[in-house]
Write a structure and sequence with these properties.
- This protein is mainly alpha-helical.
- The protein has one domain: Orthogonal Bundle (yeast vps74-n-term truncation variant fold), CATH 1.10.3630.
- The chain contains ten helices and four strands.
- A hairpin with a 3-residue loop joins β3 and β4.
- The longest helix is centred in the last third of the chain and has 23 residues.
- The protein starts with a helix and ends with a helix.
- InterPro entries: GPP34-like, GPP34-like_sf.
- It is a peripheral membrane protein.
- Pfam families: GPP34 (PF05719).
- One of its GO terms (cellular component) is cytoplasm.
Length: 219
């Protein structure tokens, strides 16, 4: 299962089939997950010093297919773009990503598409859970790490770092005996080793919220 697929399951309400987080955070964290996975696979890297390109730019290291169409589409998109800071690259990656992930999960029988109409006029889609087995296992793993104190697997560490970057750790672990504040503290401690993608998500979110504040206060 892709990191981004796990995040979709965690951030989509099983019963209503609708996201529990706003579109900005959702798209940024999914983009960060894809970038992280492509980096792990050796397809992307961040430039260092003593290179022709400026340091800290996200570049394609290997353009060969990964075998996953979602990852390959992102890789192709980045290959056609000018190298830029990771936080700036996330916006273009996220467009349409959530929808494609939902469709993939539905095709595998994990979610299902429901369509109704608001006020009988406006179509609205939802993607409630059909089979929550995998998602439940992911949640148990995150709970073992953040509530019980088990050492995270690399996959769990990255999930926690990405969820922490958009402030959603307490939301995906409801009903815990640990307070929301303490969950956030523990997640932040784990997230220190979460890699550059989670940091990029946090910076991109901070920039977007700051820009929104400037616009709001100038009106």
């Amino acid at each position: 299962m892709l990191l981004a697929e796990d995040l979709v399951l965690l951030l989509t309400d099983d019963k209503t089939g609708r996201p529990i987080v706003d579109q900005l955070r959702r798209d940024l964290v999914l983009s960060g997950a894809v970038v992280h996975q492509l980096t792990e696979l050796g397809r992307l890297r961040v430039t260092g010093r003593d290179e022709e390109l400026r340091p800290g730019r996200l570049v394609v290291a290997d353009g060969s297919p990964t075998g996953d169409d979602l990852l390959d589409a992102t890789l192709e998109r980045l290959a056609g773009r000018k190298p830029e800071k990771p936080k700036n690259a996330l916006g273009g990656i996220g467009k349409g990503l959530y929808q494609r992930l939902l469709e993939h999960l539905a095709a595998r029988g994990i979610l299902r598409l429901e369509v109704d109409r608001v006020l009988g006029l406006f179509p609205r889609t939802a993607w409630p859970a059909v089979d929550s087995t995998h998602e439940d296992g992911v949640r148990r793993g995150l709970s073992d790490v953040l509530v019980v104190g088990r050492t995270p697997t690399p996959h769990e560490l990255t999930l926690i770092a990405l969820l922490d970057a958009v402030g959603q750790v307490p939301a995906v672990l409801p009903g815990s005996d640990v307070s929301r504040r303490e969950l956030r503290r523990r997640a932040r401690a784990v997230a220190e080793d979460g890699g550059f993608a989670a940091t990029a998500v946090r910076k991109a979110l901070d920039d977007a919220l700051a820009a929104t504040t400037v616009v709001a206060t100038s009106q």
